[in-house]
Amino acid sequence: MRGKFDSKGRTKMQGGSPGQIAHAFVDAINRQDPAALAGLMTEDHVFIDSLGARVEGRERMKAGWAGYFKIAPGYTIAVDETYPAGSVVVMLGIAQGTYGGEIWQTPAAWRAVIRGSQIAEWRVYADNEPLRALMRQAGLP
């Protein structure tokens, strides 16, 4: 489901089921579009990574996504299965990207909590060891 943008560049969804809203978020990730992602986030959005680290706030996560897309260019999500249950949507698939010219890929799951027509929480469940191994090879901790 495509949205329109308000005066601050945030996407305003026109209706849409929680599943459609979650998939719009995935589409914005796959376009590597931090502004569109921010438009789909609530002001008090919470991101939780696969290690349990939390980042709170739309603007912090907009910057976080921009930084991540620089670290892992080509990052995309391929969703194979979607399970909506009320305002919660769980998606299963593959996360992939590049780092230092090397391609990495890992099975992943994502949990989106929808409030209104925006994502209030985005949680990632993935084994990011393939990316961490490439980072270690490059000399990063």
Protein described:
With 141 residues, this protein is α+β, with helices and mostly antiparallel strands. It has one domain: Roll (Nuclear Transport Factor 2, Chain: A). The strands form two sheets. It has a six-stranded mixed beta sheet. Strands 1-2 form a two-stranded antiparallel ribbon. The radius of gyration is 15 Å and the shape is globular. The N terminus is likely disordered.
* CATH topology (fold) name: Nuclear Transport Factor 2, Chain: A
How much strand content do the residues show?
35-45%
Which stretches are low in confidence, meaning pLDDT under 50 for 5 or more residues running? 1-14
Q: Any idea what the radius of gyration is?
A: 15 Å
Give the termini separation. Answer: 39 Å
* Shape assignment: globular
Summarize the structure.
It contains 4 helices and 8 strands. With 141 residues, the protein is of the alpha+beta class.
Which keywords apply here?
single chain; 141 residues; alpha+beta; Nuclear Transport Factor 2, Chain: A; six-stranded mixed sheet; two-stranded antiparallel sheet; 4 helices; 44% strand; globular; disordered N terminus
Task: Produce the secondary structure layout.
Blueprint: E1 3-5, E2 11-13, H1 18-30, H2 34-39, E3 41-48, E4 54-56, H3 58-71, E5 76-85, E6 88-99, E7 102-115, E8 118-126, H4 129-137
Parallel strand pairs: 3-8
Antiparallel strand pairs: 1-2, 3-4, 5-6, 6-7, 7-8
